[in-house]
Amino acid sequence: MAVESRAVRYFVAVAEERSFTRAAKRLGIAGPALSRAIRTLETELGVRLLERSTRVVELTEPGEVLLTHARPALEALDAAARRAVRASAPQRGLVLAVKADSDGGLLDALLAAVAADPDTGPVAVRLCGWREHTRLLRTGEADAALMFEPYDPGGIDADVVAVEPRVAALPADHPLAGAGRVRLADLGIAPADVLDRVEHDIGEHGVHDLAQLLALVGLGQAITVLPQSVAAQYPRRAVSYVPVEDCPPAALVIAWPEHSRSRGVAALVRAAAAVARSHGIGAASDDLSAPGVGSGRHLSR
Known about the structure:
Number of domains: 3
Shape: globular
Number of strands: 10
Strand content: 15-25%
Structural class: alpha+beta
């Protein structure tokens, strides 16, 4: 059964807005035209997707199923279109998504390593925010991403290229600030919370980024745990960084869209692993989260 992507986009807009009026405004079309398109889609599928009332629109069970699968399908379609356009561009290079303070200290060396590689070509850096890397990969706006775990793995392949210790960020006058090392229990942090700790702390304290969170740490209003290389980007007189002896290491990954067969991305993955090894933080075999780590698996060679 074939349905038009436009009708599915209309349905997703209504489902997300829970209103035909708001969805029509978002889509830039007339309300009656939107209603007709949804009715036609329901007729083609032979199911009722929406329960309509004067106040709100609710999804039926078939509607919930369609919404769940339609979002990634439309995202993949948009990504394919973007990649096709980018592939036709003269002197096309790769786009690498990176958060400015979360490259493991490898970005400059990585760019230098791939600059002369004919398989890679030019690499443009796309700076991004928290958890934005994988969205850029799925939408076709980036070819690869360098980021710390955790990340949303949907539609993504990745290799761990580096592992490094984590440190606690403590107020400089904290009783443990002068300690040679601390344990998670000393900080009141559960091991299961470590991966999401910074994002959790940013949300809990109502700040917008790591710099603001560390300002609170310096004021004695927070503590957090960071990868060692990230902490090195934020020296603060009022903040003391102390190794955490029982903290899981931070894993830096290089990721790419799961269906990519790009020789350039494969070369970039190999270069990232080599640069990490040269910095002494390359992923050892017992640090790997999946077979083939460091190899650029599934990519063309």
